[in-house]
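Need residues for this backbone.
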């Protein structure tokens, strides 16, 4: 995976996104796969938090359902919802917050720490090397919307978007 080493420094990725010396293509690819797996786990964790919040919101809404069932003259159903569903464990002995805590402690945090340690050991702690090199291969040299990093176009502090087109741009 070659990068554009012939470009001036201001048009190359920042040092945090450059492959350290001696890091092979296979290591960069492995780190990319590990990062992708962690990102997928981040998404799964977000869904778990959504499950936690939606379930909690539904449980709180049951208060209104119980109240309205009583008001409608159905105290037996109000009592059943209150007794059987309101505050019920979603898994044996667990509310959703406990599931989230167990997931975080037993899977998510060890995964994050392992990924961090591998990056530190194999790539000097640098993150997203695979993506940074992919970006380098896909950029169009000199195009103001294909800069290496924010503020990397010569003479600008905003990636080459410092205003409208110049006379040179209009040809």
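Answer:
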């Amino acid at each position: 995976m070659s990068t554009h080493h012939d470009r001036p420094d201001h048009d190359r990725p920042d040092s945090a996104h450059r492959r350290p010396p001696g890091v092979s293509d296979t290591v960069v690819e492995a780190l990319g796969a590990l990062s992708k797996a962690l990102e997928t786990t981040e998404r799964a964790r977000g869904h778990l938090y959504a499950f936690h919040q939606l379930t909690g919101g539904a449980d709180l809404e049951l208060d209104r359902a119980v109240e309205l069932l009583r008001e409608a003259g159905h105290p037996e159903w109000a009592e059943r919802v209150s007794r059987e569903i309101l505050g019920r464990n979603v898994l044996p002995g667990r509310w959703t917050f406990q599931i989230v805590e167990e997931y975080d402690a037993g899977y998510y945090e060890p995964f994050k720490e392992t990924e961090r340690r591998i990056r530190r050991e194999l790539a000097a702690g640098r993150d997203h090397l695979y993506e940074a090199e992919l970006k380098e291969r896909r950029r169009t040299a000199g195009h103001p919307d294909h800069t290496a990093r924010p503020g990397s176009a010569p003479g600008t502090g905003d990636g080459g978007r410092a205003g409208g087109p110049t006379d040179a741009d209009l040809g």
